[in-house]
Specification:
about 425 residues, alpha+beta
Length: about 425
């Protein structure tokens, strides 16, 4: 069976095994897998353990908002059930079609990382099934090293069976969104700093603009709307399902410099005023692409890779400007380019991605010239003290990885402590030589 993750690159000929009846010692190696929404090869292997068969809510503390659930529960299921009750995930990635186990394995961040951090900071504990088959409790206080190694560990410490997550209270399902137009890169970074106390912030950035318009952007700010703001509109309503579908893979020539440049220009100028504000549903603010089923098909049969890096604040202007110029020079502009502000990460001792600075996410169709270009970009990002997100990666080499992640030795130590000598393994772990063999 040919299986890929969301980027449709690479493809593995493997088997999916339901978690409920899977014997850990039945195969020499395997990797847990949720919704398959990582972009590269993180949850790909010859044998993959599908956690989606374990998707029950186990308990909910209504006074403190603490949800105990199985790891196969998805964000979409949490939103559908808990928004009507007045609760929302404290941190959410850009899609709701992600399992809790997958979110923790990637230590996902959202549009509020600059003020709220990543999902691990709202995780009170997990039940982890380690390679021996034993299920152990891991919290920030008990089995602390295993807990933090699992957060961002890309599933290599074992199978997350259940998790305790703290939800946040909301008064409505609407978001008060403010959109601000930025004329260039310097202006958008100043706007991020000016609005760093806002709960949610994210910018779309034009990769093709040059000169005085280089890095022109639209900054979108958001706050959960209160009861007073929504007036007669329904207070708490959950959305589910998709509106549209991409029925086939686009031809490879559909996304080219001319079409991307035209799209970027139209998208930037859709914002008529310098500043605009309105109430929008949580779906359109947090998950705009979820309304289009199979949108990954627009990148064609060969698939795409997302290059998401984070650059320390002090190198923000210099680093982002150079990345944009390199993309423009080789005419590989990204169809979707997203810029976010990140806050400090108190737990970088292992493989968690976030660090204080700016994170830029770029989508590129797979083509012949792409990987050599991205390898050069790796060297530049590393030189700035930055790193690439493993949940999006599909082609980084071991040397770049080891330089970007100084916590790798600590992570290897935890794998040895757990007795994992390659039993829990993935294409990503082999490619990056994570086990150090």
């Amino acid at each position: 069976m040919h299986i890929t993750n969301w980027g449709k690159y690479p493809t593995v000929n493997g088997r999916l095994h339901p978690l409920r009846n899977f014997a850990l010692d039945a195969y020499p190696s395997w990797i847990p897998r949720g919704m398959g929404r990582s972009y590269g090869d993180a949850s790909l292997a010859e044998h993959m353990v599908n956690t989606l068969s374990c998707n029950r809510f186990l308990a909910f503390d209504e006074e403190n908002g603490i949800l105990h659930c199985e790891a196969g529960v998805t964000y979409e299921e949490i939103l559908r059930f808990f928004i009507p009750k007045g609760w929302f995930p404290p941190v959410t990635p850009g899609t709701k079609f992600v399992s809790i186990g997958g979110a923790l394995a990637a230590d996902v961040h959202g549009k509020n990382h600059h003020v709220s951090g990543s999902i691990s900071q709202y995780t009170l504990g997990i039940e982890l099934q380690i390679p021996s088959g034993e299920v152990i409790l891991c919290t920030p206080e008990e089995n602390e090293d295993i807990f933090w190694a699992t957060m961002g560990g890309m599933g290599l410490t074992g199978i997350i069976r259940t998790a305790w997550i703290t939800l946040i209270p909301i008064e409505s399902s609407l978001i008060r969104m403010t959109t601000v137009r930025a004329r260039n890169l310097e202006e958008i970074l100043k706007l991020f700093e000016q609005h760093q106390n806002r709960t949610y912030s994210v910018a779309w950035i034009d990769c093709f603009s040059r000169g005085k318009k280089e890095g022109r952007s639209l900054l979108m700010l958001g706050e959960h709307a209160t009861r007073k703001e929504i007036k007669k509109k329904k207070e708490l309503a959950a959305k589910h399902g998709t509106k549209y579908r991409v029925p086939f893979n686009f031809p490879n020539f559909a996304l080219n410099p001319l079409s991307i440049k035209a799209f970027n220009s139209l998208y930037y100028h859709k914002q008529i005023h310098e500043v605009s504000s309105n109430l929008v549903g949580y779906d359109s603010f947090f998950y705009p692409l979820d309304s289009i089923n199979d949108w990954n098909r627009i990148y064609g049969k060969k698939g795409f890779v997302q290059y998401q890096c984070v650059i320390p604040k002090e190198n923000g202007v210099k680093g982002l400007r150079e990345i944009l110029r390199r993309i423009s020079t080789v005419k590989m502009g990204s169809f979707l380019a997203v810029l976010k502000l990140m806050g400090p990460n108190p737990h970088q001792s292992y493989l968690s991605f976030p660090m204080e600075g700016y994170t830029l996410a770029l989508d590129f169709p797979v083509k012949k010239r792409l990987f050599p270009f991205l390898h050069l970009l790796d060297k530049f990002v590393t030189g700035l003290g930055g790193r690439v997100y493993l949940a999006k990666d599909a082609r980084m080499n071991p040397d770049a990885f080891e330089e970007m992640y100084p916590g790798l030795d600590n992570f290897r130590y935890v794998l040895q402590k757990l007795g994992n000598e390659g039993q829990v393994n993935s294409l990503l772990a082999d490619r990056l030589n994570i086990f150090g063999t």
